[in-house]
Amino acid sequence: MIYSSHSLTRFSAQAFHCLAVVGLFSFASTSSAQTLFGFDSDGSAQQRQMEAEFDALIDRDEMDRWLKDFSSEPHHVGSPKSKENAEAIAQLLRSWNYDVEIAEYEILFPEPLTRELELVAPNRFTASLTEDPVEGDASTSNTDGLLPPYNAFSIGGEVEAELVFVNYGTPADYELLERYGVSVAGKIAISKYGGSWRGIKPKLAAEMGAVGTLIYSDPADDGYGRGDVYPDGPFKNDSGVQRGSVMDMPTYPGDVLTPGVGATGDVTRLSRFDAPTITQIPVLPISYRDALPLLEAMGGAVVPEAWRGGLPITYHMGPGPARVRLKLEFDWKMVTAYNVIARMEGTELPEQWIIRGNHHDGWNHGAADPLSGIVAMLAEAKAVSHLAQSGYPPARTIIYAAWDAEEPGLIGSTEWAEHHAEELQEHAVAYLNTDGNGRGFVNVGGSHVLERFFNEIMEDVKDPQTGVTVQERRRANLRINGSSEKIRNEAKNRSNLRISPLGSGSDYTPFLQHLGIASANMSFGGHSSGGSYHTMYDTYEHYTKWIDPGLVYGQTLAQFAGRATLRLANAPRLPFDFQGFTDNVAGYIEEIEALADGMREKTATDNQNIRDGVFGIILDPTKSFGPPIPKPPVPHFNFAPLKNALARLTDSADAYQRLAMSGAPASAHQNYLLYTSERELIREEGLAGRPWYKHHIYAPGFYTGYGVKTIPGVREAIEQRQYDQVAGQIEIAADVLTNLTLRLDELAER
Amino acid sequence: MIYSSHSLTRFSAQAFHCLAVVGLFSFASTSSAQTLFGFDSDGSAQQRQMEAEFDALIDRDEMDRWLKDFSSEPHHVGSPKSKENAEAIAQLLRSWNYDVEIAEYEILFPEPLTRELELVAPNRFTASLTEDPVEGDASTSNTDGLLPPYNAFSIGGEVEAELVFVNYGTPADYELLERYGVSVAGKIAISKYGGSWRGIKPKLAAEMGAVGTLIYSDPADDGYGRGDVYPDGPFKNDSGVQRGSVMDMPTYPGDVLTPGVGATGDVTRLSRFDAPTITQIPVLPISYRDALPLLEAMGGAVVPEAWRGGLPITYHMGPGPARVRLKLEFDWKMVTAYNVIARMEGTELPEQWIIRGNHHDGWNHGAADPLSGIVAMLAEAKAVSHLAQSGYPPARTIIYAAWDAEEPGLIGSTEWAEHHAEELQEHAVAYLNTDGNGRGFVNVGGSHVLERFFNEIMEDVKDPQTGVTVQERRRANLRINGSSEKIRNEAKNRSNLRISPLGSGSDYTPFLQHLGIASANMSFGGHSSGGSYHTMYDTYEHYTKWIDPGLVYGQTLAQFAGRATLRLANAPRLPFDFQGFTDNVAGYIEEIEALADGMREKTATDNQNIRDGVFGIILDPTKSFGPPIPKPPVPHFNFAPLKNALARLTDSADAYQRLAMSGAPASAHQNYLLYTSERELIREEGLAGRPWYKHHIYAPGFYTGYGVKTIPGVREAIEQRQYDQVAGQIEIAADVLTNLTLRLDELAER
User: Fold this and answer.
1) CA of A526 vs chain B CAs: smallest distance (Å)
2) CATH no., domain A41-107+340-458+501-525+540-575
3) Which residue in B has a C-alpha nearest to residue A480's C-alpha?
4) Among B229, B296, B314, which would you mutate to test the A interface (most chain A Cβ atoms within 10 Å of its Cβ)?
5) CA A35 to CA A402: how far, in whole Å?
6) pTM of the predicted structure, to 2 decimals
């Protein structure tokens, strides 16, 4: 089926018309016949010619061989296979004429020595804590060196206590528990995976006084409730367990002992007992098979409807009578992380670096996560090298990085970024990340100065399943499935599709949020969901049967990411678009105002209903569910400084855009001013309470984990009801926008 | 906990102020200090004095004894116990000096002779089709004469075919099935209970070509997913089956052989083979225990997320490979339905009748449904009789009716209403219904001319759990849990709470929708949900443990419904309020316009997306899910005739209200004109395609069953996309409003 692009083409023409007449409206999509932003017409043609050659160099069979080889054994950081893969990757890159080093860091990486979980009352049950091999997937029987299910950076210890069911263990869940008069203090919280990043669950449970946390995958969210389970289908079977780090990544990622500095052999380290990102209480992930007897033995109130899962039981909140004993011991050993760093010097602007990374360590065989991304990156690197040798050397320096130790907490990339902070802030144009890949729609998250840039790429890459461009396919999906009318309408009418702001969850975090380097993350997905994530079932067999058979989308990812690398490496004027940035920031400010208004209205209504006794009289007196507690009213905030700063920035962005579109050439210094403009969005002080995070537009949520918070200082002060902080945070956010404004004025020579 | 009513009292005062000044705004709540609408000040005081005496006469212990006696054995129509209960009720009413007759009707009532359900492929399983006795509930072992689980008015037959899972079996579900390329033609549809009235499921399945239907209660909707199951809790255990009628009640209720006429011994009857309300295909209800092996054996596409239930499996759509054999045979016998009709002649206006009914037949022991309502009605009837003998005889005639054969299709009430249609249309002031009762919030549905009347009662009856008025408690619940902001705001700010429009589901239907008699249905609920409905677990034990221990709300229902009976019987001017009616009708017109606008916009967007190929390119080509089929665009409709008619009616309602509030006495003829005003809302022709339903403001939905459709001619023409019918239906609806306008002008002597 071919998508009719008539209406879009017409729209683009209109948009250009507007640009000509009004001089402002430049959200114009460029079709492949059009000039690429940052290139002149000839340069665009030459770039596209090179890209066509590039596409032809991507070899799916070779990618498949790499995938099979690298995933033949478990390869977590510290394992022999991880080192072996790093060396193999280095060898490949060397063979393609890259200047390769393996950057080593000495990091803390605990593996479990003891994992015991027992129901001790009202009946007894011992959790198996193991995953079953399945027929038809030989990898699941090849488990030498496989890490058992555990949460890295859980503290060790032995606790015995009654269970309390906390749903997803989010702040809202604890607020509701309080209305039921149920506390986790002195108890073990049992939480479903989902609703927030896993590390938030033990963090909040500990804040609420719990002595331990269990996390299980409920089959409604991640199991038979989603679809057929492995090996009959891709979804999580009853023995599957999601491993994963629970370090307090929203405080800082990377080695827990060396915040802010590279974990080279000689740096001063924290004592592990002082490391703030290790959990306060023991935490263990379990399968739904192991969770069932525990949940079945619970009493207390029936949980609210929204909390119920897919097990064939009535879910109760506790506390107890189910009582469990949890014992965890870890080896707390130091291991070496091996980052492969491969450099190809730029011929014209060697001091300007494009960094392109993907981690290589997995929790297990790691076929999807991360090798499906690594093999696309390697195919890209090989093709880039081939092009360089056949007359298309990159103008700027390209650095390919295969990170180790991403899984335990973005450690390899963070240590390298911290280690080389100064030179990176000087030289890094952008960081381009990939990780696991799937089948379906293109997903791009990143700095909004790159929104236009990525839309040009989306328009030039074809979706392998339908033959339309990946932009058209994504646009179509948003037109139908966009979660709001605004999104559905924009998908139809806005020439550039929005890219998502980045929270955390992969290796872009140190570059973007610590160093202020414009970053992006690219992947495909939506038609390949499954339950193999961080289980022993993330195998070559699973991946090639259920996720991306034939690595068709692996090839597309290589084409997509390769264009990003090559265009950034070659664009005479770096394609940073500040109008896209200001438009998105305007939306975030609107969101935050709406958030405050909604909270103000809700709080006022709730408080009035509490005052009027309305909550009290509707409750069932036979049940232990009480009215909510009144909250301080939400004041009105002065957003004017932020909006005034944005207005000035918008004006300057328009002025710069006129310059950029005029065809004026960009000097090396202008390019420098362009790519270091993202540094204006960070402040040395960082965010309140977490100085490692320095970016004031994008951060992972302190209580959501991976989930992004845009303009985080302001947004989180409001969300966390720290009203006296809001005005100061608005000033800070306004300041960073003003700094960017000055930078743009310098660029536009205003 | 005592609800502070300050804000409400203040509001009432303001409302009265508005009335005085503006002369229009009369949605004024009357507190118990205020004059009752329809009474003068002295009359109100006397009425309230009588009601205080009435309240003291309600004896919960006696209600409990009746409940226990009447529910001691299964008592469906045609059973010995049903006749015995009818006679016992008649005897009680006679002993209280009512003029009692047992009105007998000869009706078709099929009981099953054969019920066989077998999975024949890909493996074998024979469904038990039985419910298990449980410990602690002796009634569940006392099953002599218990009807087994079945759907009355299913046709018999034997079919063998593959299963197709159809979710709730609604029109929207079949639309989605079509996108999956799955048809039920020649298959057996397996449907969850819920989403529509059960009789709609085989009706639609047959329209789509299915050869049989199974209906099961999914545990997510009605089982362990809701809460602890019987006997540990009130919810449906794995053997429980919801019985129930599947006759095509939206076409006509009552005896299937005698539409429109009373099923007395001598009337002409249809042949059963010509009866249009018997299903076209066999249908059988089953438990989730019996459903599990069938669903587990199904293949085909995984069902959409919204269709998934609470069984520990992945739900598939089929068709097959699960193949079942279903065999049903029925006895198709004639039985006698015994309606108990007890009359107390009015002393002043004996030709004006207040009819108060509750059915007495159950599907089984029937403690909740219907006996919890019957015992409240009997307590009321006894107290009314006592009051009559102690100096408070009713001014108008009161008729208590205990209906038989409600369960198979409102048969007892319908036959009596059809039999006495002419005199009822002449004499009946109102029909007041109750049925099963529970614990929690008051629910009133009914003709909106009674909205103000019922609000006055809600303000005078205290909630037994909290001590606030039942209006305050309902208002509080709507303030917190109202499903829209409009509802939550109105609960706070509108002096009268809205009553719900009536669809179907109990014995008010023939009175309201066939005869045009103002009707209402009253109950309490919200804190007593459970899964006993139409199962063998609807026992005295279950009811008094889980639903209304001590019959506390039974007493409140008697107080509530008794006031309704007594106030209607005694009001010098019948308390019909047409301003409440016009306000609600205005809301329905707005709803229908919004419905058309929403459908128009959705259809246009979908059609454009289909034309643009957008649906096509987002689909996963490895899955069999196609784009939707374009629908004819939704035209704009001319609602002006309806709105003009409403504007005139509103004007006349205001004029009548001024007269009524002036204290002018009402003659017998004026009262006659008042209560027969509801007849202006019916037309002899009835609704399109279902002439039995004559009311043009309220009807059960043709494709929803119990669910109400207001202004049904217009609404269903739009919903069913019969656009060429809409203008005509708007004219008809405008005509009935105009007829009511003329009636009000006659009343107001304009």
Assistant:
1) 9
2) 3.40.630.10
3) B615
4) B314
5) 33
6) 0.92
